[in-house]
Each structure stands twice: as structure tokens, then as C-alpha cells.
Amino acid sequence: METPSTPGWYDDPEAADQLRYFDGVVWTRHTAPRTTRWTPPETSAPPAGPTAQVPPAAAGEDPYGWRGPSSAPPPQQTHWGAPPAGGVQQQWGQQPAPYGQQQPGWGPGMGYASGPATPDGVPLAGYWQRVGAYILDILLTGLLSSIFGGYFLLKALRPWIDDFVAAGNSSDDPKVFEDLLNSLSSYLTGRDFLTYVAITILVGLVYNVGFNTWRGATPGKMALRISVRERDKAGPLSLQVALRRYALTLAIAILGALPSGLSLLAMLLRVVDLLFPAFDGRRQALHDKIGGTNVVQGRQPKRAPKTPPQP
Fold first, then answer.
1. What is the predicted pLDDT for the residue at 58?
2. Terminus of the chain with fewer CB atoms < 10 Å: N or C?
3. Are strands 27-33 and 36-37 parallel, antiparallel or unpaired?
4. Strand partners, 124
5. Locate the DUF2510 domain: which residues (predicted)?
6. Is residue 55 classed as helix, strand or coil in its secondary structure?
7. Could you tell me which residues come within 8 angstroms of residue 143 by beta carbon, excluding any fewer than 6 positions away?
8. 279-to-45, 220, 273, 285 alpha-carbon distances in Å
9. How many CA atoms lie within 13 A of 130 on its CB side?
10. pLDDT in tens, 219-261
């Protein structure tokens, strides 16, 4: 049927056994059973537009009970994606937050699964997520250290390798090889090895501080979908906070390169630091407590959100 041009009851274009009210702009959701139908006299000319319909009520009666016979209140339209009455946004079909935005539903009283969280309600990363990210980062920094410092490591080990090959060609005594293995540490004290250690420490510093200030997460953390932020503020870390957070790790790396007694202390500190989040109520490692940071679920916004002005 043709679209009518004036308000009124007409044949329902979707159901032949009922009438539907047209408000002059769109078809409304108000319907009525087909009971009567006005037809013109046989001698009259056919109407120019669609046949007007008469609802069960008396002709001229306002079907809504509050306006004149020729008008009706505009229907409450529901648009796809618009919030329903009451201002609550529908969640069905909601798309995931783009990179750089935190997932909706975080925050006090937002219905997120209960568990340790930051003061503003962002859930903290699980312990094994942190362990997995740590292993990935160790592998990546080791690869970078080998690329940039491998030459110096091989140069430092070259005398030991030559002695090992010579012993293999001249003797079959297992004790000779055992002595060579025990003496390996004595070869790792020269300038070339110290250069390699310095490159390794520098790679770790640039890797961790750089990614935490740029993206709020190292590649290992990004792979596990976790990130680092200040405990009381979202967003990538500032340079000052990132350096303070890495200070303990840097000290452990330096101690590990020193004589055996201090290297054992460094190993103990590293183990305590790695295990601390499993028992801490805030899931903070020792270096998190120094930096005032937390490792949380999800990614960080590219910029820290502005704090709204207090009334």
C-alpha cells in the first residue's frame, strides 16, 4: 500500500487483519483489529490516497485519549544503539574497548568479578600471568643482549674454548674436563666479559623503562594482556616512577656481576622479589612497592585520564 500523508488509522502494511495508526511521519506501534471499514459510494470517485480506516471506537474519538481526533502523540521511538528510557546504556552487542582504553565495567560497584584491585577498581593481574610475562621478557632481553654484546662474550670465552678443545685432543681423562668446567668462572673476569655484562644491564634498563613509559607494559606483559600503572593513577608510568620501579632490579643485576658472596645475595633478593606478589595482599613485588605501582589486567590508556574538578 502507499504511504499515507495524514495522521489516522490505515491498513497495517505488515498484517492484513488489523489496522495501524500513522502519525503523519512514521507508522506507530499502535494497532487495532479490523472491524469496520469506510467505503465510498459507488458513484463517487476513488480516493486519491490510501483507504482510511475506522478503529473500533467511535469515529473521531482520540485513540490515545488526550488529543483531538486528527492527532496522536509521537510514539516513543527506540533507536538501535541508543540508551533506553532511564539513561542506562544497553550492554548487548557492546564492542570491546579499543587499544588504549580500559574495559568498561571496571570500578567500584560496576559488577566486575570480586578480587584484588586498585583503589579505582581495576582488577590486578594474576601471579602466574606475571611469571609468564617475566619469562618472555627474560628471553627477549637475553636475545637483545646476545645481539648487541655477543661479540664480547665470545671474545671472553675464547681462551676457555681453546683450552677445552686442546684438552679433548690430548687427554681422555674426565677429571681434566671437570677441572676445566670448574675453572670457567676464572675466565669470566676480563674486560670483554665486563663489557658484555654492562651491555646486558643497559639493555634491561632501556627495555623495561622504555616500554613502561611508552606503552605501560613490556612485550611480555602485552602478550599476556597485563600492564603496569601507578597504584592510584591509570596510564603509562612517568620516567621518574619507571626508574624508581626498576632500581631494585638494576641493583640485583649489578650485584650479580660481582664476586660470589654478593652474587648469592643478589640471587636471594631476586627470588624474594619474584615470590612476593604471591603472598602480598596488593599483589605487589618488592620493586612495585618501591615504585608505588601495580600490575593490572588489560592495557593502559595512552594518556593518564584527567582528574575531574572537585565541586
1. 46
2. C
3. unpaired
4. 296
5. 7-36
6. coil
7. none
8. 90, 22, 11, 9
9. 18
10. 999 999 999 999 999 999 999 999 999 999 999 998 887 766 7
Helices 127-170/260-279 angle, 10° precision: 150
- Identity at 212, one-letter amino acid code: N
Q: Among residues 275, 136, 89, which one has the least CA distance to residue 267? A: 275
Q: How many residues does the chain have?
A: 311
Distance CA 246, CA 286 (A): 10
Cell of 132: 609468564
Of residues 229, 248, 251, the one with CA closest to residue 299 = 229
* Continuous segment of H or E residues that includes residue 193: helix 191-214
229: left (phi over 0), alpha (psi -120 to 50) or beta: beta
Q: Cα dist. 5→8, 9, 51, 132, 204 in Å?
A: 9, 12, 12, 67, 74
Mean pLDDT in consecutive groups of 10 residues from the start of the chain, 311 residues? 74 82 79 67 54 49 47 46 45 47 42 71 94 96 94 85 73 66 71 90 96 95 96 93 95 82 86 94 95 94 62 50
- HSE at residue 268, side-chain half, CA atoms within 13 A, is 6
At a CB cut-off of 8 Å and minimum separation 6, what does 125 contact? 224, 226, 283, 295, 296, 297
CA distance 238 to 259: 34
The answer to whether 101 touches 267, Cβ cutoff 8 Å, is: no
pLDDT of 285 reads 96
pLDDT of residue 111: 37
Q: Show Cβ contacts of residue 308 under 8 Å, excluding neighbours closer than 6 positions.
A: none
CA distance 140 to 220: 8
